[in-house]
Queue: 4 jobs
Job 1
Amino acid sequence: MRKVKLDQNCQICDDKAIGRNFNAITCESCKAFFRRYALKNKKIICASNGNCKITADTRKLCQKCRLDKCFSVGMKKEFIRTVEENENRRKLIEDNRIKRKQNSDQRSDSFDSSISPSTLSFTSDLTIEYDSINEIIDSSVGLSDEELEQQIMDIEDLDQNRSVNHKLLDYNIVNKMMANKITPIYTSIVDYQGFNELEANRLSELTNALNILNYPILLSNNVIKLKSVEQMFKYSKNKFEEFIIDMIRFTKKLNGFQNTCPDDQWALVKYGGMDFFGIRNTRFFDKETGNFVLTLDEENTIIFDIDLFQLKQFLDYPKLFKQVLNKLLIESSHDQFVMDLLTAIILFNPNRPKLEHRVNIRYEQQLYIYLLQRYLYQKFKSDFETKSKLQNLMIMLNDIQMISEIQRTLALSEFRHYLQDYGPLAKEIYGLSS
């Protein structure tokens, strides 16, 4: 288990804690003591009839009272692995790492990349400083491997009840979607009194940066009801190019993004752009009518129904699209702060093709997942409800990625000719650059 710096004390002896071990917050000494004695059947006797006070100074004087205290604070001997179990687990982790690498290589081969990162004039000093991120994450309590494994299994069980029936989808689409699947690593929250200064700074940075993309939702003097896909592409092409430019401006305001190398910056924008739009476009979706309402400028607003996106290869696509958007709005409770954090989570997806520093990207994503978890707890004041809501939101992000993959494969094969007049950035996002 990764040791973390904590401003907390061991629940057994009150010494400086290193993290969560066997389901309790412990120091290194009590962790080792529990591993050594919890599985022994030898009867231990206390000379003081079980009334010893266990502290950092007295913890070695009475094994019985120390072990009793370990169990009383919730430590579980079932979490202790044997040498053989440890070896099997290391082998399983290595096998999964190899599989992920193979999947990543396959995804990389399937994408086009003709525009260099310099096209967007990204700047980076190539120095990744994670001190403040470390402080935020280290201020929480790390989960044991056993608890983390159980939570991931719970998430995978939840995935079986997704809002979308994958059996209806093309096999290649499902494969790509699952390869990009977002799985949160839960962190035990100890401080429920609000965000600390570092967390607040991160959240403020995100919300301020996203002001660029908070377009007004207004009905201009000239409201145009679109009646065909051709009209939709014609009227929205300039707005879509503007959206991509604003997305890039948004990323430049995030220190975590700027501390990423230029090649990775470009990969996150190019391969994550459509997922990003899927999240932000919920602002323009009217779930009562099933229409998108998009203000082009001060004089013109367009309204179009998702039903315009009829696909010959997938007739239920408009219905599926509406279903995903509606459920995302319900799960987020129309909370713009939740949507902003989901935007950052989907931006920093470490499973994008052609990333050079996936660990760094994953670190950023897990930070925003942690901040979302913190925010949800402030709303619900319940661990169970917070975890359930977070799981559902992650499932919805995966469904947004599925919609994007359908657009990237099936929709583009039917609507490609409409996109020829789009700008260079839009073509790059859609994989149409020559």
Job 2
Amino acid sequence: MTAFQQAYWLHAPEHPQNVTALPINSTTIQINWVVPTVTNGIVRYYIVVYRIDSNTDLMELNSTNTTALVTGLTPFTFYTLHVLAVTVARGEASENVTVQTNEAAPSAPLDITAFNVSSTSINVTWQPPMIPNGIVRSYRVVYTTGSTAADVTTTNTSVVIAMLEIFTTYQVQVFATTVAEGDGSNIVMVTTDEDTPGPPGDLFVNEINSTAIVVTWEEPGITNGIITLYEILYSVGNVTTVSDNDNSVIVGITTNTSYRHVIGGLDPYTMYTVVIRTYTRIGAGDLTVF
């Protein structure tokens, strides 16, 4: 050791004693210590040195007290800290203490996707947050249509949501929760599948002449999808129903907005029963009988 080094350490204080640290919140640590046993002079201030690990830069802050708040830290992260006293020279470093900051709300879940499973259910999947800021305890999936919103909670990264409205578009967003709920994911849109439609409404049959009638109707009150076909069945006789398994005649009408069809070539002075049903891509709905 050179004469300069000997003189330096002669006036440098020993290391602070009894260093302790505890987290105040997710971004702040409080560190406390006791004055060195041997100060070798007047302690002008203390230097708190801290970092995350050996691969990160050392950071410092000064304090004239035997306590300090280290702020601006990363949530749910281990920090290693030590303290040294300064007189006319920097003293020995104390022993290291390691402490973890508290948890905080996470960032948003990633890569959310949604697709329909049936006419009343959807499947939603996502990836955990890139910055969890703690232990993700649950996810909340919010699904909205119009002014109606609902949610479901799960510990998984996927969920099937059932009992939805048929052929309805939903906005879906996912939130992760640690000790607090974080930001919402991107919003995705998903539409439940089509289903068979309800029966057409207001079916009327009127005579045009002795061999022709006109059939009119209204669109089903519940379409459950895109109407692709109206089908009229008629049969001789006053019966309670007509099906395509008996001697009925079937007339297929592609969807239109007139809701009107003329049937000709009938037998004069003959009673006919007429029914109509509606189709979507999924199939036929219930019959309406006149």
Job 3
Amino acid sequence: MTSISVNSTFVVWLQYFLALIFVSFAAATDFHGVVFDVRSKLTSNERSVISRLKAHDSYRHFYYPLATGVDISVGGSGRPNSLGLYYTKIGIGTPSKEYYVQVDTGSDITWINGIQCQECLKKGYRGMDLTPYDQNASFTGKPVTCHDQICKDINKVNTVHGCTANASCLYHVSYGDGSESSGYMVKDVIQYNSVSGDMETRPENANVSFGCGTIQSGNLNSQDDAFDGILGFGNTNASVISQLASSGKVKKMFAHCLKNGGGIFAIGHVIKPKVNSAHLIPNEIHYTINVTGIAVGAEFLNLSIDSNGTVKRKAIIDSGTTLVYLPKVIYTPLVDKIVSRKSLMGSIVYHDSYTCIEFDGSVDDEFPVVTFHFENSLSSNVYPHDYLFSYGGLKCLGWQMNDMDPSIRDKIVLGDLILSNKLVLYDLENQTIGWAEYNCSSNITLKDDITGGTYLVSAHNLSSAFSLINSRFIRFLVLISVLIIHAI
């Protein structure tokens, strides 16, 4: 019995050693860029269910941080709910398991449902299999304590209140619809696709801290909407992009080009297409820039003075929001100018909080283009076919009055309605954000700032190489174990 125990221990340590070799092998490559193959939850038909669109956005922005255990206050407001727009697949752990996560620039923390979660679903969106994370099943998984820097970053303090020796770092997020996610923080290897050449990727990995959810409630447990978790690309030190950058894995730059059906989400220096950019406003929780003007056709609106006494309006850029939300003093005249044309008189109807028009012609011929102007000559055209949604025989406006959380009610919230079919570049090294109208089914070009090399990237050419390598690695590991056990 003693001999068997020793040999079994030896096998476990050998497996651990081989796992470390695998992780080191996957990591020992130069960085050219990271690409996520993002997909859209919405089809053109699903977008017509307008009664659910505002509910989706309201849930995201009515956010209240709660304290639990060691008084953790979690940043971020995104979650996968009834109309979470874009999701991707990543690998976590050693050996790796695959997880479907919503990609969200409005969320700071990344979290995955944990194996301890009794209420969490086994099946999610469109019947996809959901995979609970098990730290003990990963050779590289380890707990995060309340003394670790990531816990301080989440809590936005230098010392976490009530933190004791070796105590876990807990997180607890509550959303406006009553849904909640809570659990504890862990650190493990996340695997993703790194650009290795034109239209080619290879497996890479990095150690990232994320939440392991043990309790999920409310709409988070709706089978029609559920994913394994969230991949947070928000504007704090706790987000994935900040963690990767602080470890030296990447530059703090990323971009997305989103369209109906999916698109590209890339980390790295995008040099094509060229974009014009504006500076981000410092010390804002979300990615925020100043709006200097809004034109309906050729006629500019009066932005009016906001509660801070300025004629500039702050605008939050959020890929996880569906519509565009405007303060009342902007919303009312904008809608009036759109629907005041003589040909539309008498055809206005209201559905829920939407202004709708009885119209069956060409929307681009009849309705005006709305243009948002920002600092540094950055602008964005929103075309009628983008801001009008079909509902039965009606065309309904995607503009909404901002009646969200009072802390952002004076701000404009720019969601997918204005961000889709554009290459949006977040240059956090220089604290700018910009975009250009672009065909998101085509290629973008990333530059390796170390070698000077450039590489074409397309969402249609992404590799699932890390899955193949991991499956081969697992078979190799099992074979070695069997041979050793047989030998002893």
Job 4
Amino acid sequence: MEIYQEVLSTELIRDSSIFNYTDVASFCIDRNFTYTPSYLYTNFETVNILIILPLLLFLAILTNLVFIIVVARAPRMRTTTNIYLVSLALADLLYTIIGITEKLHAYIRSPIYFDSAYSLDLWCAVMPLLKNAGLFASMFLVTVFSYERYEAVCHPLTKHSLSSKRRALKHITIACVLALILAATTVPAFANRVVACLKKLAEDEHSDIPDTIILCTPVKQRFELYNDFVQTLPFFLVMIFSNAAYVLIIIEIRGSARDAKLKRADSSRVIQESINITRMLIVNGVVFFILMAPFHILSLSGVISSIITGEYLLSEEAFRWIIQVVRVLAYCNAVVDPVIYSAVNPSYRKAMYQVICSLHILRRKRSNSFGTYSMSYLLTERDRRPSNVNETIT
């Protein structure tokens, strides 16, 4: 963060629309913004960007696509609950894919760690817009899903009369539109694409050091503070609301479990299925907040320190190390969600096993020219029931 203030405080920045690229060498040689080795990626950043982040990207795409395919191919999995989970998976994928590919692009194009390396002005606005849209959509969808489960557990009669896939799609659409609008308000914090020059000394060992670097800077400095604030505030509001809903849900479930012991087995089974889904939601929500909290706490500390002291509390070196760690944790969220679905809820494991087996048999039958078989070959009569059956528990 300090490096942006240093760059902005000099006269080395020129708007990309008027900068004369043909005279880069003569322009840079008289300037005092001098390259230093501290501008290069550290070993930790290199390992993180080239190994850890691509691995997380691969796992996020794999696990979420498997989950989406299972929901799409297993009829009994097409429930209201899974509509929310699929939309959450897509939001997580958007945030993860944009965030990680952005880091990989910058690393490949330039050895300078704060060089955005965007060739077009448009990218400085589009990439943050899409990434923040995915981030806000995840927050809002977690909130809506928490409220839906609260209604399903604590007010089941109301839930039964109001719940439907159409209602779920309406809530998801509203959440995504609000996320996109809120993300659009953060674009001025990055939309000013500028070109800065680096003065290199003759003894510099790195021949690949560029003469110019690209920075996506705020249109006005106050927009950078606004971006940190608007990213942080919704997260903590969502966390408070969702955790309150989780507490009320747990209290209600304990009471329902005691009552189930006095009722017939069918009632107990229905309650147990509802408990499985609710347990999955709570575990998923808690993990979401644990993994995302460090990122938002870091942003909040930056907002508070900027308001109080006018500068960041962390040194440049400490900030660079911490931001790599909190990014990894944030991107891990997209990886662990589908794992939680399978680990906590037995119905997901069963459906996944059936879909994988059906696809395997289908491939074998096709290769042997015996014709094609649909996945319903492996589904039991119970699994063929319409998804709206027992909708009150899903």
